[in-house]
Automatic annotation (TrEMBL):
InterPro entries: Virul_fac_BrkB (IPR017039). The lineage of its organism: Bacteria, Bacillati, Actinomycetota, Actinomycetes, Streptosporangiales. PANTHER family: INNER MEMBRANE PROTEIN YHJD, UPF0761 MEMBRANE PROTEIN YIHY. The chain crosses the membrane at residues 99-121, 133-152, 158-181, 202-223, 247-266, 278-301, 313-335. It holds the Pfam family Virul_fac_BrkB. The keyword Membrane applies. NCBIfam families: yihY_not_rbn. Its main location: membrane. This is Membrane protein. It comes from Nonomuraea pusilla. It is found in: Cell membrane.
Amino acid sequence: MRPDDRPDAPTSSTAPGRPAAERDGRARRASPRPEAQQEQGPQDPHGPQDPQDPHSPHGHGGRAPEGPGELPRRAWWSVLRRTVIEFKDDRVPDLAAALTYYGVLSIFPALIVLVSVFGLLGRNDTAAVVGNLVVLAPSEVRALIVQGVTAVSGSGRAGLFAVVGLLVALWSASGYLAAFIRAVNAIYDIEEGRPFWKLTPLRLGLTVLATVLLAAGAIAVTLTGDLARLAGDALGVGDAAVTAWDIAKWPVLALVAAGLIMVLYWAAPNVRQPGVRWLTPGGVVAVLLWVIVSGGFALYVTHFASYDKTYGTLAAVVVFLVWLWLSNMALLLGAEVDAELMRERGIVQGAPAGREPYAVPRDPPKADNLPE
C-alpha cells in the first residue's frame, strides 16, 4: 500500500503534526464572520474610502469636506438630481401655497408698520419706500400694495398704527415664520423637537430681524438718493452720482435679501448646522431664481396673460397671490438645495445614501413621536 493510500495519511490541504481542532480553528479565523459583514453596513455608493487620497471623494487629506466647493464634480450631479426628486416628493408647491396664505396675513401689517415709522419721522415717501421693496413685482401687485398702504399712511393716524400695527405685524409675521419652520423641517426630513419655549422666541426674533433688515434696506435706498445728489453737487459731477446710485442700490437690496435668507436657512430648521455661512449655494439659487421668476412673471402678465378677462376686478389680487406663491417656491427650492448638499457631505464621509433622517437634530423629537 502506498503511503498516500493509508487512511491516516495527511492530505495536501492539512499540515502534518497539527491537531484537527487547531486546523479547524485556523480555518474559521481565516473566513469572515457573517455578523462582522453585517456590522460593516451597506457599501458606500462612491466606492471604497481612501482618506489619504486627495483625489478620492473621501479624501481631502483625511478630513471631511468643509464646504460645497470641496465636493467632487459627480457629487454635484447627485445633488442636482436629488433636488429635483425631493422637490416633488416634499410637495414644495403645496408648502409654498401654505406660506402664501401666511404671507398675505403678514405682508400688509409689516408694510403698515414701515410706513408708520416713516410718518413718525416726518417723511412722506410712502410710494418710494414700497416701490423699492416690490420693484420686481408685476405692476398690478405694486399698485395694489402701494394703494393700500398709502391709504393708511394718509389717514393721519401713523403713530397709532405704528403701535397697534407693530403688535399685529409681529404676531402675523411670526405665523409665517412658524409655517416656514415646518416647511424646512419637511424638506430636511426631520421632526420638530424644539420645545415651545424655544420656538416662540425664535419665531418672534426672526420676525423682528426680518422687519429690521427689510426696513433698513428700504429706508437706506430711499433716503440715500438725496445724499447721492448732495455728494454729486459737492464733487461737481451733478446727476452722475444719482445715476450711479440708482444702479448700485439694487445689488444692495439683493445683499440684504441674501443675508435674510441665510439667517432663515440657518435658524429655521431643527438641524444642527456646521456653522454660520454668510452665503450658501441655496441662498444664491433662491435670490437669482426669485429675480428671474419675478421678472418673467411680470412680462407674462403684461404681454400674454388675460387675468382681467377671467377675474375682472379681482385680477390684481390673483396676480399678487400667484407672484407670492412663486416667490415662496423659489425660497423653498433654495432650502432644498442646501438640504441635499448636507446629505451629500454625509455620503462623502461614508454615510449610507438612503439614511433617514440624514441630518443631526438640534433637539431630538420626543420619544413618543419616534417610530417604533
